[in-house]
Protein: MvaI/BcnI family restriction endonuclease
Amino acid sequence: MALELTELTRLDVVVGLMKEHGVRTLVFKRLAPNDNSKNQIYLGGNYSALQLLPFGKVYADESRKDSKRDRFKADLPFFWMNANGGLFPAPSAQLILYPKYPEVRMSGFLKGAEFAPKGYLTSRAPGRIMLLGITRDRRIIGHVVGADNPLSRELEVYDSDGVFSTVFQEQTDADTRTQLLDKLREIHEMGWVNSCKLDSTGNIQPYKAQNGGGYTLEALLGVTPNGDNEPDFLGWEIKQHKARLDNPLSGGAITLMTPEPTGGIYKESGIVPFIRQFGYPDKSGKPDRFNFGGVHKFGERQASTGLTLTLSGYDPDTKKIFDINGGITLQGDSGENAAIWHFSSLLEKWNRKHAQAAYIPSEKGPGQIPQYRYGHTVALGSGTDFGKFLSAMAKQSIYYDPGIKVENLTTTPKAKKRSQFRIRPPFIPDLYERVETISLCP
Structure:
């Protein structure tokens, strides 16, 4: 195909314009013949694209009930860039996730766009290249060039890392890894630290409760406690747990996520009716208090609650989702759904927040003033996806361990919510392609 007037021909110009628009990462994909507006653009055979691209809420697509190709969708904040550096929104751009394969594709990138490289993206011509810039404010900027463009020859020197090749990255994984390890080494060398927590304005405050290990580490890293769906520190999720300081894969359970149910009696009727039906009187004898707790593992009935954790719509043998409306479910003896965590909501949380995670062992001091110190050996996990999370749950490596209570149940009920999915440290390798155990001290 002849060069289009809308495409740039020099890589340095593309890079300059992308950076002017706030791009922190620039990647490109060599388009296959099937990468077009009819067949969508292939982004990978797992969910790893979700760790690169910013996206909106994941939801189950109900528009094709007669189709065997069940899918999730998520809107993309996508813009096309023309040869002058102008940006034009593609309002219908979206990710499509096919869990049965699994596979991720991009579609809708031409519909409703005032400017778009339609000539290239309605074609099956070989040699086309799509560049994608990811901005600091979580937008995606796209630009496409053809095989005869001099820019395509400039890109030949860049190695592919799977589907994408990286032109530049503001902070590479290696950079953030080094910064993280340097900071954890500094914290280890501090020895015993008084328990503390950052307030909403970033000021360190004393913290006297018994669960101060995580808050103290976050405070030392400058991380303000929050419930958002982003990693804690330079793109790394931070997980502290009580363990031997020389072995981050030892010790007590680690809380991976604390999502609230998105369906079932818990969501539809509320926590008070839920706990009246499935909770139990406080075992220490506190009056008018009902609890809902205990370890719930896949396929096992929990004695205190009478509920069994299932993976509705997931096949543990093939390790694939076959029902996009399914989820992790607590079921009663009569088959009622007490609580559901739909796959669509968990998939979004897991892939975005846990792409890279650091596991840091800690020890609590013996004194009356709570103190903590942190290990000289840490574990770094990378290369996860939601399929690994579900597989680990089916193997009982991950389990549900709530700490929910309702006080004054018969008068003015006061509820405390705490849903937790947890894992024992030896099973952490089940969640990642790579787990490194690293000594911070040479």
In short: The domain at 173-439 is CATH 3.30.70.3570 (Alpha-Beta Plaits).
